[in-house]
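Researcher: Here's my situation. A collaborator sent me these components and asked whether they could plausibly form a single complex. I don't have experimental data yet, so a predicted model of the whole assembly would be a useful starting point for our discussion.
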Amino acid sequence: MSKMNLSSVQGQAFVLGDHVNTDLHCSGKYLPNQSAEAIAKVAFNGLTLGFASKIAAANGGILIAGDSFGINSSREQAVHIMQMMNIRGIIAKSFGRQFFRNAINNGMPVLECDTSILLDGEMLNVDFSMGKITSSNHSIIEAQPLPQEMIQLIEFGGLIPFLKEHPDWKF
Amino acid sequence: MGSTISEKILATHAQRESVKAGDVVVCDVDYAMVTDTRASNTIKMINRIGKKQLEFANKTALVLDHYSPPPNLEAAQIHTEMRSFAKQEGTKLYDIGDGICHQVLPEGGHLTAGNLIVGTDTHSTTYGAFNAFGTGIEGTDVSAVMTTGKLWFRVPETIRVSLTGQLQPGVWAKDLTLFMLGKFGAEGLNYKAIEYVGQGVSAMNIDDRMTLCNHAAELGAKAAILEADEKTIEWLNAHGAQAPKPVYSDADAIYAQCLEIDTNILAPQVARKHQVDDIVAAHEVIKQPIQFALIGTCTNGRLDDIRQAAAILKGQKLAAGVRMIVTPASRKIYLSALREGLIEILTLAGASFESAGCGTCVGITNHLVPGDGDTVISTANRNFKGRLSNPDSDIWLGSAATVAASALTGFITDPRTVIGGDWRSHS
């Protein structure tokens, strides 16, 4: 199977703040009986009205957040909805624990670093495997990359595709 | 270089000599738990993997606790799907009213000291009370466990909390965990494991130890784990658990942080409305009226919690205008409370009992809906605005003793100021 190329993920930066609860803003927890497609159209509206249509207009993008992105959120559906919105990666100062697992298990590139200098709307080129962010406005940011095992899981598109190829769990 | 309890358990389960914080390891899991909120997703993920034979099925429990009883057709259908899956695959099933996942797993003898346990609920940290590494996961994770028996983990850093002295009468593990939340903030120990040690832990009985580990979820902890002692071993043996394999940390283990809390001087604590980390001593709260009191949930719905309430409300009546609901954490606890006469005491005082489940905590069964302007004092673990389906009501958190004392007076009350509020268990 073709692996995701994590060395050059490009897109416009969409900046969100601290403590974004993705259960609240990007899942069916509070919108029961709604399809994922319907939720994807209104995702993050509570933070920035029309967020989903802005991302759609930019043909997808990279989410930038502060502390504890995905805090108190446990539903991996939030990651599926972000993928549906063509969000190609998330860079945050820190992540809620379960959201972080869910991102890796579902093949969503993530990176932890100080995001305070990244600006909404600028173009980014991110090497998630090396932890390198090149922005259109700034010099390069060097972040601590994820451990190799997590990078492999993301490259495979998540834990289930990884296990289909590696049922013995050999990384 | 020495290891923490978490590092040792993860190393053993990864068949490695040692591991250190930050390593990513693949571990054999001892037991898995799936609740009804994540069951559909889990079954969907298992079907995506497409494995016919689930060898791990006999080490998995499906628990119907959150939608217990189901408030709508959608929830009822999830339960039907779970019953049918359990029958087909041979997993253990805990049906409506049997109890909350974190209570029925230990009660059912499904875990023992030294185990690695995963569950689709953040409060799976509870199993640390039995010296097991317990942590919360999601559907993809549990589908991997059910098909391969294994899961990946990043080894967490550990923070060691020494509890000196012992909690005084009227003060409980809930007060200690609320104090920790005030100190570190919600998610303040994100990704980390907590080891609680010292006389303060030894003095606690098992019910209180479960509260201590359970509530670590609000601190963001990946696990909260205690050493096993005679009380642990006795409890595990009494519940038919496999032979305990206690794990202790090394004297030269590396900790991210070490701190000491003098539990002798700790007073009953409460979390004020909307924020689990907005903590104040109960006696500092002046004339805050309450209309609803809840004793229950996976954090404080155990026998000792119901005993605390009965000690305070025996022969008394709830304050005028106060409604009180008690939700025992399991059918076994309900039965024990019945046999001890606690249910009669609390019913005579004006409380209503609910069958075991999570509904009165997470507000998805609509069995506890406060009116506009109502204040709820609850033993639950979370008090986000609107958690009980009404954003125009407030939820405060405290121990069972604090909740019962407040239900008696009609105001947030330090239990040490009412008769029976200094009751303590003798185990």
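Model: Some features of this prediction you could bring to your collaborator: Residues 60 and 165 of chain A are 29 Å apart (CA to CA). Strands of chain A lie at 9-15, 61-65, 87-92, 110-112, 123-127, 132-135, 141-142.
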